[in-house]
Design brief:
flat, mainly alpha, 2 strands
């Protein structure tokens, strides 16, 4: 059994799901296909490249997140729609 198959078996065991033999065979085939697709990317020599934390060079200009006491009335005034003790937000899904 190759390392991908061993990893798949460990994942199936760890998440405690029931997987039939045909489903397991299908997962193995799909994993092998994915690794075949990924293999050329893994062969690229990146030894002389500097690692990235972010894909851009932006500087974080956000304020420090410091806890402070807030007045509930002040927070309610700042909310665009506060009803019945809840902050109402626009729907993003139908």
């Amino acid at each position: 059994m190759d390392s991908a198959a061993v990893g798949l078996e460990k994942a199936i065991e760890a998440i405690k799901i029931g997987v039939s033999d045909p489903e397991r065979d299908q997962l193995h085939r799909e994993l092998d296909q994915f690794l075949g697709w990924l293999e050329p990317a893994l062969e690229v020599d990146t030894g002389d490249l500097e690692g990235l934390v972010f894909s851009h060079e932006a500087i974080n200009v956000l304020r420090e997140d410091t806890p402070r006491q807030s007045d509930l009335a002040e927070l309610q005034e700042a909310a665009p729609n506060f009803t019945g003790g809840f902050y109402l937000v626009p729907k993003i899904m139908e």
